[in-house]
Amino acid sequence: MLAFVLRRVMQSVVVLFVMSLVVFSMINLVGDPVDMLVNPESLPEEIDRVRRDFGLDQPVHVQYWKFLLGAISGDLGKSFIFGRPALALMAERFPATLELATSALVISVTVGLPLGVYAGLRPDGWGTRIIMGGSVLGISVPTFWLGLMMIIVFSVVLGWLPVSGRGETARFLGIESSAFTLDGLRHLVLPATNLALFKIAMVIRLARAGTVEVMALDFIRFARAKGLAPRRIVLAHLMPNILIPIVTVLGIEFGTLIAFATVTESIFAWPGLGKLVIDAIVNLDRPIVVAYLLFVVTLFLVLNLVVDIIYALLDPRVRLQGDET
Amino acid sequence: MTRTDLLSIQGLRTEFPTPDGPLAAVNGVDLEIARGDVLGIVGESGSGKTVLGLSIMGLVDRPGRVAAGRIAFDGTDVTAFSEAQWQGLRGNRVAMIFQDPTTSLNPVQRIGTQMIEAIQAHRDISSGAARQIVREAMVRVGINSPDERLAAYPHQFSGGMRQRVVIAIALLNEPDLIIADEPTTALDVTVQSQILRDMRRLCRDSGSALIWISHDLGVVAQIANRVAVMYAGRIVEQGATMELLKSPSHPYTAGLMASMPANSPRGQRLISIPGGLPQLSNMPKGCSFAPRCTRATEACEVLPDLSFISRGHGVRCVFPLHVGASLAERN
Ligand SMILES: Nc1ncnc2c1ncn2[C@@H]1O[C@H](COP(=O)(O)OP(=O)(O)O)[C@@H](O)[C@H]1O
Ligand code: SF4
Ligand SMILES: [Mg+2]
Question: pTM for the full model?
Answer without folding.
Answer: 0.82
